Automatic annotation (TrEMBL):
Top enzyme class: hydrolase
Top-level taxonomy: Bacteria, Bacillati, Bacillota, Clostridia, Lachnospirales
Gene Ontology biological process terms in this record: chemotaxis
Family, as annotated: Belongs to the CheD family.
InterPro entries: CheD-like_sf (IPR038592), Chemorcpt_Glu_NH3ase_CheD (IPR005659), Cytotoxic_necrot_fac-like_cat (IPR011324)
Documented EC number(s): 3.5.1.44
HAMAP family registered for this protein in UniProt: CheD
Protein name: Probable chemoreceptor glutamine deamidase CheD
Amino acid sequence: MELTVGLGEYIISDKENDIIRTYALASCVGVTAYSPVKKMAGMIHVVLPYPFDNNDRKERPGYFAETGIPLLINTMCIKYGCRKEDLVIQMYGGADSRFHNDVYNVGRRNIDAVKHKLYELGLKIHKDDLHGIESRTLIMEVKTGLVRVYRQPIF
């Protein structure tokens, strides 16, 4: 079955025939977590680094790096019994703005926030594909943990 991760969402699957995908990571960051022991895969599509307020923190936890990364990892480990030390973590996206005067630097801030949360959780990033001026679509196989990346220029 094909499972699609939308903006600010995450999906976890242990069904070996499932494919998890997310589309059009530009300044957003996609993080994948795979347990080769449990044959379980998870993916989150992070939109922004931090919640604006406590309401956002509660209502849209997957939307933000600060709340979404722990949500994905803790769900895989606590609810599904994966061990953090077994997880293969990859991150993608965080594209740079095409505009040189972009004061928000959302892509860079997302990358920094995701890395910070992963570090806080004691996790190592095994592979990354970050920055640039391309949008990335990710397709992850639950059976193997393989992640394929398809790039499209940001116009």
